[in-house]
Design a protein that fits this description.
By secondary structure, the chain is an alpha/beta fold. It has one domain: 3-Layer(aba) Sandwich (Rossmann fold), CATH 3.40.50. About 25% of the residues lie in helices and about 25% in strands. Strand 6 and strand 7 form a beta hairpin. The longest helix has 12 residues. The chain is globular. The termini are close together.
Length: about 150
Amino acid sequence: MTNVINNIIKITNTNSEAETAAEGEELGRTLSPGAVVALYGDLGAGKTAFTRGLAIGLGIEMPVSSPTFTIVNEYPGDIPLFHFDMYRLENESELFDIGWDDYLERGGVCAIEWSEKVPGAFPPDTIKVRLESCGENVRTITIKSSNH
């Protein structure tokens, strides 16, 4: 990834769920095993749509759904995707109780919705994606790198 200024890799606007997913797909194509993508944004901001695209970019063909009730959904692939939803967790210790450390070591990509609930759980090289609703279908997506 190039043109990093103040840790910002990219800022873009999307006008549909498909465009939001396409941004996720673009990022997914650049990720390596062990990558962590922390997703931030209000309810309905497009976090799951972005993650659907991320899965496509990783070559995963299974449909991606929100793991709100299961906490984590696993999607197999050459690089597996571990899709977490922290909405129902109270704190970081609950994340570690479900085996967070193990997921980090399994060689997949971890995508975490509601990352603001567990701010101290992420490795230093975590990619942060903020999705902001700017109207009915318009989203602003900011992707930041933590390792620059």
